[in-house]
Amino acid sequence: MHIVCVVCMHAGGTFALYSLLRQHVNFSGKSVPVPVTRLASDVNLRFHSRKSSQQPRMLAFLEGSSIAQAVITYLVLVGTCMVMGDGALTPSISVLSAVQGIQSRSSSIKQGHVVLLCVVILVILFLFQQYGTSKVGFTFSPIMLVWFALIASTGLYNIIKHYPPILKAISPHYIYLFFARNKRVGWEQFGTVVLCITGVEAMFADLGHFNKKSIQMAYSCLVYPSLILAYAGQAAFLIKNPSKLSTTFYSSVPEPLFWPMFVVATLAAIVASQALISASFSIVRQSVALGCFPRVTMKHTSKKYEGRVYSPEINYFLMIACVLITVGFKGGPEIGQAYGVAVIWVMLITTHLITVVMVIIWQVHYAIAGTFYAIFAAIEGLMTISLLYKIAQGGWVPFAITAFFLIITLSWTYGRSKKHEYEVSNLMDRQDFIKIVNMSNRVPGICIFCTDLMNGIPPIVRHYVQHMGCLRELMVFVTVRHLPVTSVLPEERFLFDRLEPFGVYRCIVQYGYMDTQNMEDHEYVVSIIASLKEIAQSGDEILMMDSALANGTTFVLGRVILNMSPERGNCFKRFVINNLYRFLQKNFRSNISNLKIAPSKTLQVGMQYEI
């Protein structure tokens, strides 16, 4: 029955909870790989959540402990990377489990044929991602409704036909009886239960587009009853047909319903796979926005739903991983073992994070939060331990994928942190900057200098000014700031500061991780100039801005190369900076890649930082 089950709740749960924490907790410790710079204006920033005036003691502890902040951050990074492994495993196991039923129709259909068919379906599924789910999204709900109706009716049929008393299994005391009777074997099978419960909170392709009430009603009135009837029906069938354990699902389907069930199961598997693939795109997008992952291409595929995005780099990685997993394991049970390990680890990490959120943000009483944590952590912890022996039987796959993404994530965050440290310690002196600008010729037009620093003038500016000899009459240092909130209100989008000498400004452009950033270069500049006029102190200053806008714009992009000398750090850190980070920096997108800038308006300035 787990053939189309996919845990969408936990798919984005870890990062959603972390983003919520970053709204309320100042993660500024030096041990945090991705600290958020706080500005004085943040006190007026209307985050899309409310903070109570009575802050719990855990908040003070968390803000004062850089170690605790680092532990939570790294835990989130591990959970996020584990979800990427889940994104590679879910399509494989879902499609494979649905298609395998065809073998029961003919002995001439071998496992190799099933694997080949799965590969074809998976490749088509991933190639279709570039068109977005909106094209066929209207079919998802009917498919799932038919799916639940079929499994519920089939389950009810098997219960009535084979063993009606099976419904007694709903009683929790059978859990104790199961372990008392099976002992070690029961313990080893306990982890396999994960493959059953993964469908309980699933079957919603886009949970973020539904409200809390609709999800609760759909789960309570449709999903849960259907799953109970389906599993109970299969158990009743096995009581009378124990020899058909390996083909329980399709063997329990009445003959006239086989082909309709096969078609709907395959379609439902595709819907379930689509959910995890879409979730992977969304998670990577949020990770990029918070500086936890290198910038990748993000394309919006829906004009109606802002959160629907597509990343070709992530898509093709997942496609290759899915095909390799399917072919490598030849459709064997190892895929199920790997999937169970991935799911339970993400669930365990999510439980830890949600407990922190309950205490700090929701301000649930410590006793209630502690009880919640004890119950769920104990259940998930026991499942995790029972699955340890599955690691050698395919459970290593999600850890391998997690390690791959962790290498990318940690190399990127470490390199960015070292770059930030260098720029902060080598800021250009303001008086020196004023002197150099005054000595340079000012020519008509606008210069948009893109920098990651929100305070001070980065050292690469000195490099630029000294070599250019002339500057535009209007110079704006622009920093794109990604906040750990869903969306930034339009009136909070731009923050401006007037610098010396005349005609030099600083602009901070703020985005939430779900805000659209695709803008034309001219539209971007017009928005900046319109906001600058609001802080203009004279009509001459406004005239200067209009004149500069009419004379064209140049976007200056700083290209910084980090180089760690042999005297600094150990060989491992040098390898990370000089090789891994430099590779990521060279091959991924720039910080203003979302702007559609004409090549003729772009000037790239390179500089090497010796750290």
From TrEMBL:
Signal in keyword set: yes
First-listed, main subcellular location of the protein, grouped into a coarse class: membrane
Membrane topology qualifier: Multi-pass membrane protein
Annotated TM spans: 114-132, 138-160, 217-237, 257-277, 314-332, 338-361, 368-389, 395-415
Example of a GO cellular component annotation carried by this entry: membrane
Pfam families (UniProt xref): K_trans, K_trans_C
Entries under InterPro entries matching the protein: K+_transporter, K_trans_C, K_trans_N
One Gene Ontology molecular-function label: potassium ion transmembrane transporter activity
Occurrences of domain K+ potassium transporter integral membrane (ranges): 11-435
Keywords: Ion transport, Membrane, Potassium, Potassium transport, Signal, Transmembrane, Transmembrane helix, Transport
Domain K+ potassium transporter C-terminal: 444-611
Compartments reported by the entry: Membrane
Signal peptide: 1-16
Protein role: Potassium transporter.
NCBIfam families: kup
Protein name: Potassium transporter
Organism field: Zea mays
Upper lineage: Eukaryota, Viridiplantae, Streptophyta, Embryophyta, Tracheophyta
